[in-house]
Structures are given as structure tokens and as C-alpha cells.
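[job 0412] stage=complex_fold ligand=nicotinamide-adenine-dinucleotide status=START
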Amino acid sequence: MEEIQHYIGGKLVSGTSGRTADVYNPATGEVQAQVPLASSEELNQAIEIAKQAQPAWAAQNPQKRARVMMEFVRLLHRDMDKLAEALSREHGKTIPDAKGDVIRGLEVAEYCISAPQMLKGEFSEGVGPGIDMHSVKQPLGVVAGITPFNFPAMIPMWKFCPAIVCGNAFILKPSERDPSVPNMLAALMSEAGLPDGILNVVHGDKEAVDGLLDHEDIMAVGFVGSTPIAEYVYARGCANGKRVQCFGGAKNHMIIMPDADMDQTVDALVGAGYGAAGERCMAVSVAVPVGEDTANRLMEKLAPRVEALKIAPYTAGDDADFGPLVTKEARERVKGYVDAGVNEGADLVVDGRDFKMQGYEDGFFMGACLFDNVTKDMSIYKEEIFGPVLSVVRANTYEEGLDLAMSHEYGNGVAIFTRDGDAARDFASRINIGMVGVNVPIPVPLAYYTFGGWKRSGFGDLNQHGPDSFKFYTRTKTITSRWPSGIKEGAEFSIPTMG
Ligand code: NAD
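[job 0412] stage=complex_fold status=DONE, emitting C-alpha cells
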């Protein structure tokens, strides 16, 4: 049985807590490795190593720090196949999707090469007699990232790339479900020239998370995961005086207007609803056709497409639409929601609950499910399912569809499909959701914009990646200077003003 290790101080280190968790291959259902769950003592040692290493790294000029990112990007391309294989083996997603996971992280590493530009301060000459003023952006020190299972490459990179290029040292606490890729990323950062101790991967569970939230040397915490844990991390981290940003769960709606191109809409909907088995925070989980005729045309085209979705283990290569769910518990939870939907009176048009993958009967596979006539009060509408289940909620008017998305407690992503520019513009302007697609089903912003949901999908002031990440991982210091030739004789007792 493979023993996964922590990556601390530039090398792999065995866990000493005596506590471990099973890591599965979701396609076969087999336990393929044990991941150590760090004790607070192990975590504290890693934080101390990071603290010792950070000042020298911060003292390197930003261009040198950016060069590590350039080399890291090259190494990610070199090892793309290896990374994707390791990712799919623990997560279950298809190989092309796993490569997308790596690439969307890599794109943030590319963006971080702009650090010398992004970290420039401001300067004002002559703000008073002989007085100049300037501001600098300095790193925070040691910062931490706590990340979910569903993007084990992308989300760790969204966190550690900007943090590190800004001059911080980083402790990554990745998901215990798929811990191998984070270790591989850390080894590649070392190979790219990152000094030991600047990026550390400490595997663990609640004990490690609480240890990070309570440690006085952790200056900032970035979290991505489910909303209840996001709220917990936000509250505890803030109470301990840390800078915290937390990104949580989602229920993303797609509003389908009567004039939408139905073939394009259905293509977009099956990809966004069922890709990665629905285990994406930007998956579309609610389709809202506007008007009875739109709904009937949608269902006519959608149901056969959902029935025909190809489910396979990642080893099947490109010939699969999605793979298994991450764990048996995850699959049972999703099936429980489908049972609840049936009991609550929704029409289960496609039922994938009994799907069995031939040759992989112990894998965590589940077929695609499609519900019609879902209503606002049903649990399958209110809660995040995080599986291959799409709910159709019929709306009579555009305003009703808009109101539905606006009154949902989550506000991560949303899309409208239409040919009507006026409707699209009105929608994008009024909707209270952080990321909006117009004929784009999964509107994940690119690396040089920022990513973040509203309402109970995001907590904190700043988003992930883009310019916000440079703000989150630095603090501003403002310096006022006056030299002897500008100094008047005598003491001043009233507050200086610009007169
Ligand atoms: P999760 O909340 O179970 O776990 C996330 C992290 O928190 C993991 O590192 C885990 O070890 C840790 N954790 C779990 N339970 C904890 C506890 N009781 N105390 C302290 N730490 C704990 O989430 P997950 O199942 O790994 O990921 C799926 C969730 O993440 C979904 O809700 C999805 O929508 C969300 N997600 C959100 C975004 C976003 O940007 N908004 C992106 C990806 C995933």
C-alpha cells in the first residue's frame, strides 16, 4: 500500500501522528494509498520552517520570484500527462478534464509572472515642502490555503502561486481525498528553483485546519470547499484576527429564453450539468426554461442526450463524458437526493441510480439523472447536490426566472441563453450573482480577472486570482519622507494639513 507523505522544507516527510485516511481509486473502488493526517505538532513544525525561510524569499527581487513561476509553467507542461494520470486516478475525472484542471491552475501561474508590474507601489513627489510620499506592497509572512477535492491541481495553484510570488511562504492543506497532485506540484516548484520551506504541503483533516486557524504565525487563510465549512473557517479565522477569504458551495441556474438556439443550449447544458459528474462548483444544476413551449422543446432534445451520456473510467481515454463520483459516500448522498426528489413529487425523466459500470462494479459510478417540474420548495432545488443530477424548473416569464436565481441562497455562477441583447444586458446588470455567462454555460473568469461568488457562495472582500490576489497576499505600507533642506525649525503641535 502506497504511503503518501507530507512535503515540508523542500522534501517528502513521513507522517508521525499515527492517524491516516484511505485514498481510493474511484473507478475500481479500491483503497490505493494511505494519506497521513497531521497532528498539530507536525503542523507547527512546518509553520516554523516556513517562517524561517520566508524573509530571504521576500528579499529576493520580484523578477527573480517571477522567474520561478516561468520555470514552473514549463515543468507543468513537461509533466502534464503524469499529473493528469495521478489526478484522474484519485479523483475519477476523465483525462482531458484532468488536464483542464492543471491548465486552469497553470494559467494563474502564468498571470503571476506579472508580479514585478503588479507589486509596483505609488510615489508622489512634493506633497509638502520638501516632502515626498510613497507606498509599497509587502508580503504578509506565512499564509495558508485549505482546498477541496474537486480541483486538486487548479485550486491549490490559485492559492499558492500568487501568495508565493508576492513573497510569502505557504502552507497548503489539500483535500485528503486526492492528495498526490498537490505533492507533485510542490516538488515541481522546488525543481523550478523555489527555496526550501516556501511551499509546504501538510495533509490532514479538521485538526490541521483548526491548527492553521489558531496559529499566531499564520497571517492569512484562503479556503475553498462546502459552505458550512467555509462559514466555520471564516468565523474562526476572523475571530483570530487573520485575513480570510472563503469560497463555498453553489446552485448555478441557466435561464433559457424562448429565442435561444435550442441545439446550442442543449449542448451547453449537458456539458455544464454532467461534466466531471457534476462535481464542479460552476456546474449548472438548475435549468430554467422560460415559457411552456420553451420547456417542452428543451425536454424533447435534452432527455435523449442525457440518456446517451457516456460514463467510463478515466482509463477509457477520450471516449467518456464523465467518470465515477469521488467516494462511495458521495454517491450514496447524491442518490439520497434523487430519492428525495422523487418523494417530493418531481418528475424523474432519466434515472441513473442503478447504473453499473461493466467490469468496474465496485467503482463509485452513478448514471445521469434528469428531473422535470422541480419546484422551489424541494430539497433537490434548495441544496447543492454535487453529482450528475440536473433539475428543470419551469418559469412562466423572464422576471420569474430572474427572481428564482436571485432568491436562491447561493450566488456563485449563472447563465442566460438568448439571442436578445436587451434581455442579456438587463440580466447581467440586475442579477445578484458573482459570475455571469451570456450564452456561456460555465463562466469561469480567466486568470487575469477574479473568481468569486456572492451570497452564501463567498465570504470575505477579495476574490481569487487576478488583481485581487495581489491585494489579498500583500499589505500596503505608506512612507512619508522629508529631508533636512525641507525641514522648518521649531516643533509643530497641531496636526499637519495641506493648508
Ligand atoms: P469540504 O468542505 O468537505 O472540504 C474542503 C476542505 O475543508 C478540505 O481540505 C477538507 O479537509 C476540509 N474540511 C472538511 N471538513 C472539515 C471540518 N469539519 N473542519 C475543518 N476542515 C474541514 O469540500 P469538498 O467536498 O472537498 O469540496 C466540494 C465543495 O467545494 C462543494 O461544496 C463545492 O461547491 C465547493 N467548491 C467551491 C468552489 C468555489 O470557488 N466557490 C470551488 C470548488 C469547490
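The chain is about 40% helix and 20% strand.
[job 0412] exit 0
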